[in-house]
Amino acid sequence: MSIFARFSFAVLAVALALVGCSQSSRSIQSSAPDGKPAGARLSTAEAIQIAKQAAEREGVRLRDYKEPEAHYEFTRKDRSWFVFFDGRVAMPGNHFSVSVDDRTSKAQFFGGR
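and the corresponding structure tokens:
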């Protein structure tokens, strides 16, 4: 095997190892259905329930959407949950999100259409 091929293989192996290790334990914990990430007051299930109630207040028919995914402190360390709802039919704008404040349980709806 040539030196170039060995070097390429080694670089690929290291890159795959780094990508596999890059997922934080916090994001793994936040996707568990009943889990409560470290530092969170609400569980994942509670955050999803609050988000569903907020969506229903906005007139959304939840049966038109897949089961949502919830992530704690998704983009910032601000003690908030971000709950993603994807439509059952794949088309542009057929999604929405709800932000839930972990301290106050206040929800904010972000429409996709």
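(Above: one complete record from the training split.) Confidence is low (pLDDT under 50) at residues 4-31.
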